[in-house]
Amino acid sequence: DSGVTQTPKHLITATGQRVTLRCSPRSGDLSVYWYQQSLDQGLQFLIQYYNGEERAKGNILERFSAQQFPDLHSELNLSPLELGDSALYFCASSTGGGSYNEQFFGPGTRLTVL
Amino acid sequence: GQSLEQPSEVTAVEGAIVQINCTYQTSGFYGLSWYQQHDGGAPTFLSYNALDGLEETGRFSSFLSRSDSYGYLLLQELQMKDSASYFCAVTKGGKLIFGQGTELSVKP
Q1: Which end of chain A, N or C, is surrounded by fewer C-beta atoms within 10 Å?
Q2: Taking CB atoms and an 8 Å limit, are A43 and B94 in contact across chains?
Q3: Distance between alpha carbon B37 and the CA centroid of its chain, in Å?
Q4: CB atoms closer than 10 angstroms to residue A81
Q5: Which of B43, B89, B95 faces A56 most closely, judged by CB atoms?
């Protein structure tokens, strides 16, 4: 158990809908990262927040948005959903926000878009 | 662009030693990490090389050569539980850029 929690574990929804994935980092960690893992794309970095502010951006689509709240939990919003958004979404956390920091991954949310 | 290449699959027998290679085409990164992932579970950190050379952590060792744009993960005394996917990743700007992963199958 990494100490990072994600909810929900599974989500099945339809195209055009909106979903919110939630992540709580390890106690004391200030950085939160979001990753998408699909069969054909591997683990893709989406976005990083550090202490409430966006720190780095990766391959995050405009249909997706994220934020980190004052209590440091983070949410990833996806809307409107497309079939290709079906994937595992992982959240990770680390103590710092730059250079190297070991990242601790949550159990993931498996999103299925029908 | 940035890319990391790993073999897609490797098979080895219990008790043996296996090396998983990672070649990359990126620059300006802080270091090379290795993560293990079992069956769609959470990736877990194994090892990190900030400098060239070998880092040893128990049965796992990792190596980096920046001049050769190459690194590897060495697993010794393989156990059945080592069957998993292994990802190399470079740390750049605080984010991890992952390779496509190597699926390791350990046979009895």
Answers
A1: N
A2: no
A3: 11
A4: 21
A5: B95
